[in-house]
Amino acid sequence: MEPISITGMSSVSALGMQSTSIWAQYVAPEHRLYFDARKGFETFLGGLTEVVDNKLQELRDSDPKYKRLDRTVLMAILTARNAFSQVNCSEEFGVNFGSSRGATALFEKYHSSFVTGTDGRVPTLTSPTTTLGNIASWVGDDLQAKGPTISHSIACSTGLHALLNGVAWLRSGMSNAFLIGASEAANTAFTVAQMKALKIHSKATENDKYPCKALDFSKKHNTMVLGEGASALFLEKGIKENALAFIQGVGYATEPLEHNISISTDAVCFQKSMAMALKDAGISRVDAVVMHAPGTVKGDISEYKSLQKVFGENLPLLTTNKWKLGHTFATSGLLSMELAILMLQHQFFIPTPFLQQEKRESKLTYVMVNAVGFGGNAVSVIISSK
What we know:
By secondary structure, the protein is an alpha/beta fold. It has a single domain (4-384), classed as Peroxisomal Thiolase, Chain A, domain 1. Helices cover 35% and strands 18% of the residues. The protein contains 12 helices and 12 strands. The protein has helices at 19-27, 50-61, 71-84, 104-116, 126-130, 134-143, 158-172, 189-197, 268-281, 297-311, 322-325, 332-346; strands at 4-12, 34-36, 43-45, 94-98, 149-150, 177-184, 229-237, 245-254, 288-290, 317-319, 366-373, 377-384. The strands form 3 sheets. It has a 5-stranded mixed β-sheet with strand order 1-7-6-4-5, with helices on both faces. It has a 5-stranded mixed β-sheet with strand order 8-12-11-9-10. Helix 2 (50-61) crosses helix 3 (71-84), helix 3 (71-84) runs parallel beside helix 6 (134-143) and helix 9 crosses helix 10. It is globular, with a radius of gyration of 20 Å. The two termini are 16 Å apart.
């Protein structure tokens, strides 16, 4: 298959929004997660930086029609604009922007008002501003996209499923360019309470150095930390001179469900998605894998076992970014893509503090990125350097 070029990339997360500063935070050993002691939280979160928050406020104030949009939508517009500004594409392009929770803050606000109110009414714009489809619609409108405009939700693999959709449109010949992305602004008391109810959120105290211990296989308790973020990639068919990296292979699979959030002990879905991606790329090995690794006991070890099944004893280098920026649900896979692209560009592997691996001097050529959502919807993507 002809490679697909990634020609634009942008994100907002706990690491900032500029590629240079994001890379600097990855290279730096300290973590960026913060302890939020506001009522209803009392836990670690991965929140946006003050600079990014200011940018979002500027965007909200720039046009009256943006005043009532959810934070999720504003984050999507901001990252989409930044990614699109990097490309020189005269083709009509499509948009696929997804989210796990959608317009979280607005939905919770309007629903709370409905429940506590006495007249059974809600504000007029409740429906259009809280529907999932309004995320991609606003991005498409902002960029005046002429192609299809799609929103979807497949839990924590939403971002990589957006990439799958973009790849499918390009390979089919129905489009020559696609903007894909995901946005998640779910750092709310209600969402944190849901994660605590599942007993997967970190119980780390304010003095703990690493509240999220993703890829620490000695941990006895779940250490997932909720984060917020958005990411956008611009995809173009063929080999482009301005490409940041190339998509060489994609794979996907769904776990047979035994429970609402179940995944098998050796993550069969990941075994299948990784094998499919390797076959699609026409290779048998990769140099590194950016794992989903949410910081939960079962989630981390099951994915690790799936890697052992696929690659044997000679594993690629393994890493994750969730100990740095938290689990951003829908956006997590695309933020992992960003880390993979930056590692290829800098030819430098970013390790975690917990997993000891032998240093290797070989060049990073192929990097795999994994993501999976509740329900066992796994996606694997292989990218390469120029």
